[in-house]
């Protein structure tokens, strides 16, 4: 049976997702920080529950149109049932373990779509008591208003290189809104050296005891200087002092893998991001 989660389902959802903690960070963070259902935030999420003898799977559909899945034993028929409840909704992409994403794309009928990003990325984990500190030459700080234009340019370049997006008006507008969210945020940080910003880092999902790193960026002319690993290490030290015990991330390529491994991260599996070039309507045609 597939049903929309209702108030009172939160403990059961969290208990299920916690058993798959490393690949459920987006779902768990959205549930904890935004609750059930879609609200003002683009990350606010409708949660659909797959039930049999008990809770067997969770699929989230965010206000921004992204499907997040934790469906470890799902059948193709279960995904077809998810497609029925999402019929008529626009989907911009799907994320989860590679096997789940492959089956989910077929079940939702979006497997033949055009994707700007469709890749399996190595998944890493670090217990923060095992954090290895690199040589520190910079200082970590929160972003403020003076950083807005810089952040917009950095975010646009990050989206182009990490996700294969073309610079359109929509991409730029999203970058502006994302940059504004960075300002004064508790989860976004800038690394600077001698007063000059050289890198940024963020937590794209957060729980009291676990965070997921995302949005790490160094401008091309400043790469291979160790700035990214400094930024991440300093941010994780800050999180540790606030009670966080574990960090998760998925890396975009060999240079990123080397940087994260240098500060103690260990590969534990993989995670897949599949982002459509244009949103596709479930139940529609390509």
Overview of the structural elements:
33% of the residues lie in helices and 32% in strands. It has eight helices and twelve strands. β9 (196-206) and β10 form a beta hairpin. The longest helix has 16 residues, at 148-163. It is globular, with a radius of gyration of 19 Å.
What is the topology?
Layout: E1 2-4, H1 10-18, H2 25-34, E2 45-51, E3 55-62, E4 66-70, H3 76-85, E5 90-96, H4 98-108, E6 115-127, E7 139-141, H5 148-163, H6 169-182, E8 188-193, E9 196-206, E10 210-217, H7 227-241, E11 246-250, H8 254-262, E12 266-281
Strand content: 25-35%
Instruction: Enumerate how many helices there are, as a single number.
Output: 8
Structural class assignment: alpha+beta
Number of strands: 12
Strand order of the largest sheet: 1-2-3-4-5-12-6-11-10-9-8-7
User: For the terminal residues, how far apart are their CA atoms?
Assistant: 28 Å
Q: What percent of the residues sit in helical stretches (DSSP H or I)? A: 25-40%
């Amino acid at each position: 049976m597939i049903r929309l989660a209702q108030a009172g389902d939160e403990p059961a959802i969290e208990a299920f997702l916690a058993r798959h903690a490393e690949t459920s960070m987006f779902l768990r963070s959205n549930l904890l920080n935004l609750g059930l259902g879609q609200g003002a935030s683009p990350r606010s999420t409708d949660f659909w529950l797959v039930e049999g003898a008990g809770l067997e799977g969770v699929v989230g559909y965010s206000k921004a149109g992204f499907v997040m899945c934790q469906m470890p034993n799902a059948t193709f028929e279960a995904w077809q049932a998810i497609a029925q409840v999402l019929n008529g909704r626009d989907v911009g992409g799907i994320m989860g373990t590679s096997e789940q994403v492959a089956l989910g794309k077929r079940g939702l009928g979006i497997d033949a779509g055009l994707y700007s990003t469709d890749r399996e990325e190595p998944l890493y984990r670090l217990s923060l008591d095992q954090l290895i500190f690199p040589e520190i030459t910079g200082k970590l700080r929160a972003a403020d208003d003076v950083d807005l234009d810089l952040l917009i340019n950095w975010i646009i370049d990050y989206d182009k290189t990490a996700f294969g997006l073309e610079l359109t008006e929509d991409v730029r507008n999203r970058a502006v809104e994302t940059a504004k969210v960075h300002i004064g945020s508790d989860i976004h940080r800038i690394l600077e050296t001698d007063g000059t910003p050289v890198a940024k880092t963020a937590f794209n999902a957060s729980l009291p005891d676990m965070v997921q790193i995302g949005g790490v960026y160094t401008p091309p002319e400043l790469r291979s200087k160790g700035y990214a690993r400094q930024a991440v290490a300093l941010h994780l030290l800050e999180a540790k002092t606030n009670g966080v015990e574990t960090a998760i991330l998925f890396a975009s390529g060999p240079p990123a893998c080397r940087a994260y491994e240098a500060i103690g991260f260990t590969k534990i599996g993989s995670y897949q991001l599949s982002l459509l070039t244009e949103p596709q309507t479930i139940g529609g045609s390509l």
